[in-house]
């Protein structure tokens, strides 16, 4: 039994060896045939009468039509101050050379063959808007291999790191969209000999390159004129980039907004505290210092960007708040009552109703016996002794009457002088608080509270509207 199993195993091994040898022989034979056909095709096409220095199609009088395609690989840098756009791309050129046509059936069904780029005719291609180096042929130093098709088409594929000029428009910074151009020409050969045509331009639309988003890729060809007679074709690829504004809004616009709001709410500080104007000036200094820090981050341009306009407007709003606070503080320190019926009606009735600050105390009409007595005594003392009255007016009056009555009964001049001195002392001890109370309830101080609220509402609403208008502008 074991002899039969051994026999079967040996047979399987021999069959596998035979099949392996047959397969290797077939592959080697196929590869050999392919190499032979390719060598024969090269010999028939290029080693005969073909001249790589002579452009195709000249005998027929038709211009050579060259198609240029581009695949954007990466955006290296967009220098906004120097206006230089640097990127890496793959460039493909395609044209028809009727001298390189063959029948695939005659050469083992070969439809494409690679060959040395120097063995076939290639155009001289230059980058029109380059900013690095000179206007030199970008094909001769970068292309080593070309691909030939059986229908006569020639394909050249090569990588290119290009630095081109890019006009920067920052009127809508940081919501701006930049269009950077990459322009090619055939060494400005007249279009009667060579015509250029824009092919496909591809790339990863929506890809993020640092602070830029690839938004759109377009290509076109147009005819440029040099002098009055000579005209040549130019292929232009447009790379549209959209700036990501979140970084600039969080690092620049948001701090300016916070500082400006701090400058507006200084109307909530009591005008008598003496800290309102110093707080407003401190905010102005903070805005100025912040602008000195971020001005280097803004691109230089003849037209101010949106972010610069927003900072300038915020600075003006804080300045306006300081000026209005100065007016409010001056009115608060006025000791007299408001004169003029129109002024009183405007400041004590109309504005309080608009600002919802009208109450029963704003009219300052004396209603209690204490208030009436205080007013009467204050007028008498101010006319004679130039003193004011405190909150305890009733007790001061009773004391003065008692002293005066005692002096009348004694009939003594010395007692009369003592009574006058004692009354003056009692009056002077309580007069200062009463004077401050009367001044604190003056019409101007009441009107100042209304003006502060009015200024706060008007300036805050105006700044919010200004912020929405400026920061929502888009190209």
SSE map:
Layout lengths: L1 H45 L17 E16 L4 E18 L10 E5 L9 E2 L17 E5 L1 E15 L11 E14 L3 E9 L5 E2 L2 E15 L3 E14 L2 H19 L11 H19 L11 H27 L8 H15 L13 H16 L8 H18 L2 H28 L2 H29 L4
Parallel strand pairs: 1-8
Antiparallel strand pairs: 1-2, 2-6, 3-5, 4-7, 5-6, 7-11, 9-10, 10-11
Give a description of the structure:
This protein has 475 residues and is α+β, with helices and mostly antiparallel strands. The two termini are 91 Å apart. α7 packs antiparallel against α8. A hairpin with a 3-residue loop joins β10 and β11. Strands 3-5-6-2-1-8 form a six-stranded mixed sheet, covered by helices on one side. It has a five-stranded antiparallel sheet with strand order 4-7-11-10-9, with no helix packed on it. The chain is 45% helix and 24% strand. The radius of gyration is 47 Å and the shape is elongated.
């Amino acid at each position: 039994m074991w002899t039969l199993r051994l026999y079967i195993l040996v047979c399987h091994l021999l069959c596998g060896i035979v099949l392996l040898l047959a397969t290797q022989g077939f592959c080697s034979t196929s590869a050999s045939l392919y190499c032979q056909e390719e060598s024969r095709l090269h010999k028939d096409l290029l080693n005969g009468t073909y001249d790589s220095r002579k452009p195709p199609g000249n005998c027929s009088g038709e211009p050579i039509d060259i198609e240029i395609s581009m695949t954007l690989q990466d955006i290296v840098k967009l220098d906004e101050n120097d206006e230089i756009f640097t990127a890496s791309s793959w460039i493909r050129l395609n044209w028809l050379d009727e001298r390189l046509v063959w029948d695939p059936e005659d050469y083992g069904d070969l439809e494409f063959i690679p060959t040395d780029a120097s063995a076939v005719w290639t155009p001289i291609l230059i980058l029109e808007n380059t900013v690095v180096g000179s206007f030199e042929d970008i094909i001769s130093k970068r292309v080593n291999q070309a691909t030939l098709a059986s229908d006569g088409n020639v394909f050249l594929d090569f990588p290119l790191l290009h630095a081109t000029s890019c006009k920067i428009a920052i009127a809508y910074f940081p919501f701006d969209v930049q269009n950077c151009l990459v322009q090619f020409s055939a060494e400005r050969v007249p279009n009667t000999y060579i015509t250029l045509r824009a092919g496909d331009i591809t790339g990863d639309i929506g890809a993020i390159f640092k602070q830029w988003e690839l938004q759109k890729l377009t290509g076109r060809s147009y005819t440029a004129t040099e002098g009055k007679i000579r005209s040549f074709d130019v292929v232009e690829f447009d790379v549209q980039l959209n700036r990501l504004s979140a970084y600039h809004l969080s690092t620049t616009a948001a701090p300016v907004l916070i500082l400006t709001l701090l400058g507006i709410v200084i109307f909530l500080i009591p005008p008598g505290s003496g800290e309102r104007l110093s707080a407003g000036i401190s905010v102005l200094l903070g805005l100025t210092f912040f602008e000195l820090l971020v001005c280097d981050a803004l691109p230089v341009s003849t037209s101010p960007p949106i972010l610069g306009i927003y900072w300038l407007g915020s600075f003006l709003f804080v300045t306006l708040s300081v000026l209005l606070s100065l007016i409010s503080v001056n009115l608060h320190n006025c000791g007299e009552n408001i004169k003029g019926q129109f002024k009183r009606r405007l400041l004590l009735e109309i504005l309080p109703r608009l600002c919802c600050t009208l109450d029963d105390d704003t009219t300052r009409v004396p209603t209690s016996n204490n208030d009436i007595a205080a007013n009467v005594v204050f007028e008498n003392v101010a006319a004679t002794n130039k003193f004011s009255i405190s909150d305890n007016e009733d007790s001061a009056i009773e004391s003065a009457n008692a002293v005066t009555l005692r002096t009348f009964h004694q009939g003594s001049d010395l007692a009369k002088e003592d009574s006058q001195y004692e009354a003056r002392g009692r009056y002077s001890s309580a007069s200062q608080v009463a004077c401050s109370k009367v001044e604190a309830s003056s019409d101007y101080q009441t009107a100042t509270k209304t003006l502060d609220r009015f200024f706060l509402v008007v300036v805050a609403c105006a700044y919010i509207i200004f912020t929405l208008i400026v920061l929502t502008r888009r190209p």
